[in-house]
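Backbone geometry:

***
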Amino acid sequence: MNQNSSVRKLVHCGMVAAIYVVLCLALQPLSYGAVQVRVAEALCLLPVFGAEYIVGVVLGCFLANLLGSTIVDVIFGTLATLLACLVTYKLRNVRFKGLAIAASLPPVLFNAVIIGIEIAVMFPDPTSSAPIWLACITNGISVGIGEVISCTVLGVVLVKLIESNAALRKVFATE
């Protein structure tokens, strides 16, 4: 790998992290809370174009949670994003009718499970008498729906847009 390529990958990481943070903070009412559609999560599909995007998305998630959420979310939200991006990268070449739908599922599943449990355990609803397992499932479904909108809809559209536009493909595709 030449130095020019390394600098380009570093710039990609920084650019993606910055975009993630800006989207979360600019769309704050949608980005944080039990019911959320974090538009920035569409960026979780960028590892389809190269492993360096994993670092950019995870760094962006870490910083966005550090600036706008709780320390618990800094830890578990960032973990969910890391795991999601790693598996998304592994699924980068899987297509359904030309769409990266399989790559969009890890963010949905990891966030639904990890953040669903996080919300139920760390921020229980004091007015509810539901058992903890039911709260985990209910919160997981809520988080999962938001992730489907962010990743399976917006993220898949983002990947398709990049793949079908020569100028964007030149900017994003590194492998």
